[in-house]
Amino acid sequence: MIDTIRIAIQKSGRLSEDSLKLIKECGIRFDNGGGKLKTAATNFPAEILFLRDDDIPGYVEDGVAHLGIVGQNVSEETNKNVNTVHKLGFSKCRLSIGILREQNYEGVQDLDGKSIATTYPRLLGEYLKAHQVQANIHEISGSVEIAPSIGLADAVCDIVSSGSTLLSNGLKEVETIFRSEAVMIANKNLPAPQQALLDQLLFRIQSVQEAKNNKYILLNCPNESVDNIIKFLPGMRSPTVLPLAQAGWSSLHSVINENDFWENIEKIRQAGAEGILVIPIEKMIL
Ligand code: ATP
Ligand code: MG
């Protein structure tokens, strides 16, 4: 039997689309039609398992799946014995405490003696302990944000991204207790063939992530401006400079970090660049 690596991802929810996209961007092809629970990749020795996100850390700990993609919030809350092998940069959110908007709030001590509804009793418990607050943790399994308005609890501790859900339930965010993004987790005792496949996968993920952070830039400039412009475009080793058909002009090609691009574009123009093109990169191997 060929050794394959089993990767667990969320079946349907906020992580699903980006998890599938990442695996596809790594060049791994599979058929995920028909609401299947398991599918085999056609061009890489991998199987994808579609599960509820809460179950993924446990399956990875047991070795039912070798790898999993979950939010750090779920990974930390479930507290399973797994390795976090890579941050994936999507599904960024935070775990926050919210209280009714009209209530006064001076600081975390105001939560003393209050009841807080949450699906994250472990993370909340640790936070309260660290801040020496005695509050009653009310564990519920969903719809946390309505708890204060129906009198079930004084406060909530829940996942927030824009804050609009809190707002529409008459709540305000008063403390952020944990920042999260999607991560890849792995079983702690991977057999050698699966470890080798994980290394291949991480190499591909890194090249996809590098590519996303960088752009290919082409521009034209008078020959005498080349040295000046190159200062802003160091490139991977150094930029490519090609002569234009028009005498005295060059075309300069380089790779630039997207953030540096917005910071430096004005200086590049002032240094004499024109006809600037910025092109996405699909894969980048350093
Ligand atoms: P499941 O049915 O698989 O248990 P779920 O309802 O528990 O799904 P989702 O709401 O799909 O979970 O969220 C999955 C993960 O996505 C969360 O654990 C969190 O890491 C992240 N997440 C949740 N809400 C947001 C948000 N508003 N913005 C970005 N990421 C989020
Ligand atoms: Mg869940």
TrEMBL record:
InterPro entries: ATP-PRT_HisG_long, ATP_PRibTrfase_cat, ATP_PRibTrfase_CS, ATP_PRibTrfase_HisG, HisG_C, N-reg_PII-like_a/b, N-reg_PII/ATP_PRibTrfase_C
Residues of the ATP phosphoribosyltransferase catalytic domain: 52-206
Catalyzed chemical reaction(s): 1-(5-phospho-beta-D-ribosyl)-ATP + diphosphate = 5-phospho-alpha-D-ribose 1-diphosphate + ATP
Any Gene Ontology CC annotation: cytoplasm
Coiled coil: none
Group of enzyme by EC: transferase
UniProt keyword Lyase present: no
Protein name: ATP phosphoribosyltransferase
Keywords noted in UniProt: Amino-acid biosynthesis, ATP-binding, Cytoplasm, Glycosyltransferase, Histidine biosynthesis, Magnesium, Metal-binding, Nucleotide-binding, Transferase
Function: Catalyzes the condensation of ATP and 5-phosphoribose 1-diphosphate to form N'-(5'-phosphoribosyl)-ATP (PR-ATP). Has a crucial role in the pathway because the rate of histidine biosynthesis seems to be controlled primarily by regulation of HisG enzymatic activity.
Cited PROSITE patterns: ATP_P_PHORIBOSYLTR (PS01316)
Family: Belongs to the ATP phosphoribosyltransferase family. Long subfamily.
Cofactor: Mg(2+)
Annotated SUPFAM superfamilies: GlnB-like, Periplasmic binding protein-like II
GO biological process assignments: L-histidine biosynthetic process
Keyword flag Lyase: no
